[in-house]
Amino acid sequence: MKNSGFAQQLLHWFDKFGRKDLPWQQQPSPYHVWLSEIMLQQTQVATVIAYYQRFTACFPDIYSLAKASQDTVLAQWSGLGYYARARNLHKAARIVVSDYGGNMPANLEALMALPGIGRSTAGAILTLAYHQPFPILDGNVKRVLCRFDAVEGWPGNKQIENQLWQRAEQLLPEKRIANYIQAQMDLGATLCTRTRPDCEHCPLQQNCQAYQTGEPTRFPTPKPKKTIPVRHTHWLVLQNDIGEVLLQQRPQQGIWGGLWSFPELTDMGEIGDFCQQQLQLTLLNQQAVTPLQHVFTHFKLNIQPHLLQCKPAGVAEKDYGNWYKIEDTFKLGLPAPVKSFLKSLQ
Fold first, then answer.
1. From CA 286, how far away is CA 288, in angstroms rounded?
2. Residues 37, 152, 169, 327: which is the catalytic one?
3. How many Cβ atoms from other residues are within 10 Å of residue 46's Cβ?
4. Tens of pLDDT, residues 304-327
5. CA neighbor of 233 nearest in space, from 293, 309, 298
6. Catalytic-residue membership of 37
7. Tens digits of per-residue pLDDT, 65-90?
8. Residue 147 CB: number of other CB atoms within 10 A?
9. Which of 65, 94, 157, 293 is the most buried (most CB within 10 A)?
């Protein structure tokens, strides 16, 4: 099939059935395209919409985002997951304001030099906001191309990924580049879905090699399965005599980086010494409550919360966190399970 035929059929379908009412499509500035692309990484459109609307209400432009504190940004992101995206978004906004006068760069290399922006996100900004001819290769586009050419092999493999980038470049049309890129994403999101693709209504059906095999869902090749490890931790939900809870800000790197959470222990046999020696707190009583599990990309975390009543036993030698009224904690960046648990304490 000629490259122009692929684009023409896709654009013809897009004109009739493509998505044109998503919030970020109403003002496709570089800032709004960038924000939506970052939010849509690893996250469904239906989930993103409400977060995007709240986020842009709080940070309507790149200047307001750059000016905000990290805590404020993470609080708006709380619950969306993959928090490195928010930290990198904030860092990049500050770089754009300081180095580019608040204008997103309009070339691939400069965009990819910003924190959290890879080749596909940069391509989306350049096509959707600047109407430059660059390919993208998000999950939806990978799936469409793998099926169209019946590509064998996991797309996360570097060799297969390079093959798909080359194919994506070959298929770029000379006109209507923004609509074409949006059409690719829309096709993967609405018809060429991971399970139960709607091949009967697909504009590419006639030339789709995966469809010709009769097993379209065989493509793309799934990621090789690995056993997901399980980790265990104990949350110390420490409350003082006026009902405040102790929260600690997590390190910037690692899970829930920069967010506020409860102190943790792996061995509850150390609870007395930990509270007395490190926090300068005396435990009055403790109670284990219903455990919970949180699933990350690479592991599962089993959490056993403990409600601990305490009183000061001295002055802590180091800063081990801050005491908050429960209603004030929701102004902080909180991991979703911490936020849910605090709501249950209310």
1. 7
2. 37
3. 7
4. 999 999 998 766 656 788 999 999
5. 293
6. yes
7. 999 999 999 999 999 999 999 999 99
8. 25
9. 65
